[in-house]
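FW: tagging you since you asked about this chain on Friday. Here's the raw sequence from the shared folder, copied in full. Didn't touch anything.
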Amino acid sequence: MSGWNTIESDAGVFTALVEDLGVKNVQFEEILDLSPDYLRAIAPIYGVIFLFKYISSNPDDEVDGNYDFEAGENIFFANQTIQNACATQAILSVLLNKSQQTAGDIDIGDSLADFREFTQAFPPELRGEALSNSELIRDVHNSFARSNPFIDENTRAATESDDVYHFIAYTPINGVLYELDGLQAAPLSHGACNNEEFPHKVIPVLQRRIGRYPITEIRFNLLAMIQDPRLRAMEIGDLETVRREEDKREAWQWENALRKHNFVGFAHEVLKGVIKMKTREGKYGEWLDNAKKEMAKKMAERKEDGKDEYED
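HL: got it, structure written out here
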């Protein structure tokens, strides 16, 4: 069985991913302004996906929010049991708690509805195992990994010097604002919150999370799961918004295609052409020496940084 590969925190990637899973009329938007007015402008918001640098915490550290161990079958919550799956797991933490089957708003499609029903009575640990072992979910997730024939994500484990990043979800469920983090023991409650209150009640929670880091830390990413804006635009005859959203999706489709494409063959042909040209000009040796010096310089700079980025 193949493993799970790292995918990017990107609105186009996440939108296409959920569509490939069978979800209808859902889109992701990057949140650039933590203000209630900005969030209300893109409503309805089903939840937010937050990416941050993961820092191992001390068991005695105070947790923001309150563990809700009694949530049980009323909430879909799964523990993370495998590396690199947390992006899709965070997305599903919102989707499977907002499905029409749970009196929510989203048509999640037959496959995810069946998965939710199958795992409904499972404890969080077993739900996490079921998610990790789902061929459909894993294959769709991996289809959005960048093509890189020189790196095997299944064998290259993160080390202590690597920056590890983690995804979690925030969403209102049954009148409560929940933080759903597969690395926690249970959902974390942040108090009473309905769908209309979510845009302004989630902001202080996110600000507290960001406030745990030094002021110089800026490597965060926040994506909102929203209703496809084209639906509302078509209802009111806003053709300009419809065209703008269509153009955005065409750009996303192109970018996603580039992510999946392997350019090794193309690069090989280009390199052969350059070598042929340099040899004909009598500058092959000089060009090769310069290339070696430049590569040595880049390797030294990378060694000085001493860090690669990995998703938890």
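FW: The beta strands are 26-30, 45-53, 66-67, 163-173, 176-180, 188-192, 221-227, 309-311.
HL: agreed, and Residues 149-161 have pLDDT under 50 and may be disordered.
FW: great, closing this out.
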